[in-house]
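Continuing the batch. This is chain 6 of the set; chains 1 through 5 are on the previous pages. Same settings as before, nothing changed between runs. Recording input and output for traceability.
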Amino acid sequence: MNTPDISDQYPEIPFLYGYKSYGKYHSLVGEIETISCPDDNSLVRPLLSSEGNGKILFIDGQASQNVALLGDNLAKIAINNNWGGIIINGFVRDVQILRDLPIAIFALGACPKKSQKNQLGEVGVKLKVQGLEIQKGYWAYADLNGILISKHQLNF
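Output for chain 6:
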């Protein structure tokens, strides 16, 4: 899978920019599950503790640089529950551990501070990231070139 080739084949598919790869794997393909959690990742753990079935969790932290929304413990939970990867519109931590974990993780950056735990956020909601609508059931195609978001699964 190569996002430039997919983009050439499907030029109408929008993309997200500015994301870096933090996991051991540098590409992902899968159906999206969404969660919105501004500076609070309390709802991420129970979601990642459920069976992922290869889906991609898209965490919208509204590009906040205040805290990390994912670290090594949550990434290990995702791996153990068969999540196909994680995209974070926000920051991660424990990057030296994440890079050795067998999962694809894309985020805007890294921050050492853990998030709040106030049970804020919503699962399965429609997100708006970089002007792009992202919903549960959409598909993500990501690699080191960028992240493509499609309303449906693509054939390539």
